[in-house]
């Protein structure tokens, strides 16, 4: 039994006394619960027949004999079962045994483990040779016939879903769930790449895969926990024709974190596309979009003390997004319209408001005349007069009449941020 401390997730349920401990005898390998989130390997020094048990606990490579309460003890699995690929095959399926098995596999770069029909994936936080074309070809056999000879892998889960779709003639679903940074985005991409390798050939699979960099650019951002965190939910439906080749896809998005556009926590960024656009926009387009060379001049991007991600080239990522947009059929005119809107949003954040001195009641607000107003109105395709009116007044319909309410400086800032 390896000398490893396991920390359970915060709020994990503590197992009560159960039938697992019955029959434990002196010399049995066990787990000792040190506190609510730490388990230590130990050995029972007496028969398990009272509320107090004497155990030898492994702490930093040394054995310490202690008398502990019996409800803090759980049986350990034999070493023969250490690191097995399916948790349901463990003799004792308890919290420390699950964590130990996952840890044993993780140190061997085995990041995938089955729990029956569920695949557990641990983020390796480093590149691994797990997604090569040769490996994808190897897992194609799982799409034809059921097999238990292949290691746990997201490819095998995708293969099982494809096989059932073909044999049963019914749609199948893959649900990818986990906390921030667990690898949901990457796992989804790998599953889509496997489907493309398995059922491609129509050419449409390349377009489907090219949606990934677009979705990430417009919907992902750096957070304190994850450099590429999806800030929205998505449902990707991949369509297959009668010959079981990919024929199209529908992507539905929901719950986008809109507030991130106008403010972020310290150490976090807004959506990737803003930084990519500023750093990667070619000179011939930069002038028409009124884009500076750095993000420092934009109010919506310069307040979180985080403008770059280590190891990420925003300019190169922008070129990849432009290529992806062309691949899925977005015209150059449409692409420029999207980028104009993005630049317009950034300049909108630079608008400054002040109280209207002509209004002695200080109830009205005016927009300071500066380049931000000129650029924002031009890029958004509206006149300066209409933009100023939309941000500094509010129209209310009551009793069949339209009442125009003047907004204060603070209300105008909120109106600007809501529009952005």
- The pLDDT mean sits at 90
Can you give the helix content as a percent range? 25-40%
Q: Please tell me what the overall shape is.
A: globular
Please state the CA-atom Rg, rounded to the nearest Å.
Answer: 29 Å
Compressed to H and E, one letter per element, the order equals EEEEEEHEEHHHHHHEEEEHHHHEEHHEEH
Strand content: 15-25%
* Span between termini: 57 Å
Q: Find the count of extended strands (DSSP E, 2+ residues).
A: 16
Biggest pleated sheet: 6 strands, antiparallel
As residue ranges, the low-confidence spans are 11-18
Annotation field: number of helices: 14
Question: Structural class, from helix and strand content?
Answer: alpha+beta
Structure description:
The chain is of the alpha+beta class and 420 residues long. Helices cover 34% and strands 20% of the residues. The chain contains 14 helices and 16 strands. It has helices at residues 95-106, 133-138, 141-144, 154-168, 184-199, 204-209, 211-219, 272-280, 283-286, 314-327, 332-348, 371-380, 384-392, 409-419; strands spanning 6-7, 29-35, 38-44, 52-59, 62-69, 73-75, 112-115, 118-121, 220-221, 229-230, 233-240, 246-254, 353-355, 365-367, 393-398, 401-406. The strands form six sheets. Strands 1, 2, 3, 4, 5 and 6 form a six-stranded antiparallel β-sheet that branches. Helix 11 packs antiparallel against helix 12. The longest helix is centred in the C-terminal third of the chain and has 17 residues, at 332-348. The protein is globular and about 90 Å long.
